[in-house]
Amino acid sequence: MRTSIRVLVVSALLTFASAQAAESPAIHPAIQAAVDSQDRLPKDRARDVNRHYAEILEFFGVRPGMTIIELFGAGGTTAEVLARAVGAEGKVYMQNPQFFYERFGTQAVDERLANNRLPNVVRLDKPLNDMGLAPHSLDGAVAFMVLHDFFWLSQDVPGVLADVYKALKPGGWFGVVDHSAPAGSGARDALDRDKGTHRVDEAYVKKLFAEAGFVLEASNDALRNPADDRSKPFYDESFRGKSTDRFVLRFRKKAE
Predict the structure, then answer these.
(1) Cβ(52)–Cβ(222) under 8 Å?
(2) Residue 18 has pLDDT above 70, yes or no
(3) Helices marked H in the chain
(4) What domains are defined for the chain?
(5) What's the pTM value of the predicted model, to 2 decimals?
(6) What's the mean per-residue pLDDT of the chain?
(7) Inter-residue contact 54 to 26 (CB < 8 Å)
(8) With the C-alpha atoms ordered 166, 167, 171, 176, is the resulting torsion angle positive or negative?
(9) Which of 148, 235, 231 is nearest to 186 (CA)?
(10) Helix intervals (H) in 37-116
(11) What backbone torsions phi and psi does residue 42 show, to the nearest 5 degrees?
């Protein structure tokens, strides 16, 4: 009797483990190697616990050889992981508006790219509405926790999305991660750089992308935090060691 029970328990555990494995997507070796690279800066690696780069880049569909743009890449933490994942045959445009350098200086970006450290990263210091991207030149685009900033950086966010849409190849993707604002709030919490909470409503983001021609292909709950009431900015002291509630979306340009 005891042997039968033991067999049943072991069988149930194996079934559960198999189900869990089936639900967890395999991470492409190039992505895992990029995240695990010891050449990444220690301060960057320390952020991984709240960013889940491997899972998110796999969800977006990052692959070696791709050409990707990271919009408002700031100091380049995410751009570096992308660059390592796409490899020597790929390319990453790290776009920043002039505001970033005026506010924070150029040191972080200069040091990251110094001595040809990331040879496949192209620094793109241009405004969101004037990036000069060639049509059908990109495999993917990423806005990693910065889409909310577009609403005070630009007077024409739909125009930004339209430009990226044109620059993507048919079937290209646009991956978005951002801090969730209260449902129905639109861009209200993103409009004021100094007084806003630097969040944006997920449903509003979906609406804007749809109007630009994108198809919402999938969402991912890896960065969700139901304990976040969405009322405070991501840099509030209450989030020290924690993370905000973040939505993760993958949009697709229609194949032509």
Answers:
(1) yes
(2) no
(3) 2-23, 29-36, 42-45, 53-60, 77-86, 98-104, 107-113, 150-153, 157-167, 202-211
(4) 32-252 (3.40.50.150)
(5) 0.89
(6) 91
(7) no
(8) negative
(9) 148
(10) 42-45, 53-60, 77-86, 98-104, 107-113
(11) -55, -40
